Amino acid sequence: MNILINCSNLKAGGGIQVADSICCLLNRYIQHQFVVVLSSKMSDTENRIKNYSNVDTLIYDVKNNFQTLLWGRDKFLDGQVDSYKIDAVLTVFGPSRWNPRVPHLSGWAIPHPLLPESPYFKMLSLSKRIKVWLRCILWKYMFGRSTDYFWTENPFISNRVKGLFPKKTVFSVTNYYNQVFDYPEKWGGGICMPSFVGITCLTITANYPHKNLSIFVAAARFLKDSHPDFNFRFALTIDKEDIDVPYELKKHFLFLGRVDVSECPHLYEQSDIMVMPSLLECFTATYPEAMKMEVPIVTTDLEFARGLCGDAACYYSAIDAKAAAEAIYKVATDDAYRLQLTMNGKEMLKKYDNYEQRAEKLIRILEEIA
After folding, report:
1. What is the pLDDT averaged over residues 27-36?
2. Which of 49, 186, 204, 347 is deepest in the core (most CB within 10 A)?
């Protein structure tokens, strides 16, 4: 089979890590030839797979033009389907904007149309709610137009997608940590946090609004006022311009900027707690990453988080900064509780498809639909 792996629409966040993980295992499927179209943000992935004998790599960013948005046509991508005689396309995460003329499996990782009950929407102004509502309509239209089959990383999310598209097939293939976490020799050592005596709370994510990263400012203020002897810092993989931190709290924040997946394990090694304040998720790899690295998790008390973490996380009321601060303080100061969370994380990991199983399942689905 000739398979096109479409990553041309991926720009940031966990989608790139999932795509990287899948692509780095393609050399195990020598019975197939792969054309991997990577966005310009995925040069690291290209370097890792460009010498695979059964893989051709191309760098291309899908265009936002009328031809693509209205009719789903993209001259470059259509050309690859014809040139390589492609039998099936996997868009790692859609919507692809592009509508392939061969069987198309697309990952769904946009939670907004699926989780209307999230407190995220209540935080938005009326005008922003209307904008999100319109975007949800557009996402549903683009997915429905371009996608023959869906896969999601969470059975709960699969059921929600089936509710939107009852006539389409939806597969569940869970996420996992990237395989680089299992090979310390491949860990990038480029990011060393400044030495610090205290608790480092790590959050690895791009600065999407639904991640609710601004809650850390109010949480930091509460920790500083209520526990003046508690030394802490939030280490965030965003730029300092992304959130407004008052001068008196700046010492509690460390901005690391965007990091490559190979640099993430070393960041966990330098951290004491992983905090994920997200209000909307289909899946986030930071949960299994933290479990793998034995870093306790503090996260929002929402259905998607409980479904993915079980007893391996300390939960707080989703938009309550004081509750977030107290959860962080509890995990930081209770050694037995912190140990129990990490032990529970090891057990929870066994419930996920690992990265090898994920790749295997996706390839089998592509074989089936082609």
Report:
1. 98
2. 204
